[in-house]
Design brief:
Number of helices: 6
Strand order of the largest sheet: 1-9-8-2
Structural class: alpha+beta
Number of strands: 17
Order of helices and strands: EHEEHEEHEEEEEEEEHHEEHEE
Mean pLDDT: 87
Shape: elongated
Length: 264
């Protein structure tokens, strides 16, 4: 019942380059209460951005584990004969997932601690114990760009992925730079632009708009929806509008222009 409160988290934004990812089964948690707290912590980590030159602190993001933040009492790692329950017991499973994701990157790990007793989901040395004001998990973003942590949760797994956020392209139509209020972004090498603004900036005709919406409706034109906005892949849009597209990697610029007709 507890786990049914949660659902898979979809991307709210897109980032170009995945650096590391790791997941554990929800059933790997010590108890359903621990699973609940692990998922709660994962939800709090989602979309966390760490700028270049900044340090990430797990305790700073999660904060004190209290009921008003959604935490319940769960088992904590202990060598005592009897089980000990504290608010937030189980969040170490999430920090351990994060540690494994960070290990796959070039990020610099500054602080990590073993549990005092073995945990079921990872061997000692691969885990990341967390205690408020005593044990933290910290890493330094030594990359040239910001990184973003994304959480993915379904009925079976908790997954954390780390993405490097690359700068968006500057887009020109003919010789004119197009200024977007909703900044274009790059995802897996593809530049995406917000649909409404692009229609206005390129001054699409009624016929072109109808054709575009027909392709979207018929799933010919792929779309990316986020925060009630629809983004279109620029190359696909250029093909639809019969525009040439050229990428200048040195300048980080995309050039759009009509095909020049050559008289026979």
């Amino acid at each position: 019942v507890i786990l049914s409160l949660f659902f898979r988290i979809d991307n709210l934004m897109a980032y170009d380059k995945i650096l590391g990812s790791f997941q554990l089964k929800i059933t790997d948690a010590e108890s359903s209460e621990n699973a609940y707290n692990a998922i709660t912590a994962a939800l709090m980590l989602d979309n966390t951005k760490v700028e270049s030159g900044d340090t990430f602190s797990y305790n700073n993001i999660i904060g004190i584990r209290t009921p008003d933040k959604g935490f319940i009492k769960g088992l904590i790692s202990s060598k005592t004969k009897y089980p000990i329950y504290k608010y937030g017991g189980g969040i170490c499973m999430t920090s351990s997932i994060l540690h494994q994701a960070v290990k796959a990157t070039d990020l610099l790990i500054l602080e990590r601690h073993n549990h005092v007793a073995s945990v079921g989901y990872l061997p000692i040395g691969e885990d990341a114990a967390i205690t408020w004001k005593t044990e933290d998990y910290r890493f330094y973003n030594n990359l040239a760009h910001p990184i973003v942590i994304k959480s993915y949760i379904d009925n079976e797994t908790i997954q954390l992925s780390i993405f490097e956020q690359l700068p968006s392209s500057t887009i020109f139509f003919m010789e004119t730079e197009l200024y977007f209020a909703n900044e274009p972004f790059i995802d897996q090498g593809t530049t995406y632009v917000e649909m409404g603004e692009t229609i206005d900036l390129l001054k699409l005709s009624s016929k072109e708009i109808i054709t575009l919406f027909d392709e979207i409706t018929n799933h010919i034109m792929p779309t990316y929806t986020t925060e009630n906005m629809t983004y279109l892949p620029l190359r696909e849009l250029a093909n639809l509008l019969n525009l040439q597209i050229h990428w200048d990697g040195e300048k980080g610029q995309v050039q759009l222009q009509p095909f020049t007709s050559v008289d026979p």
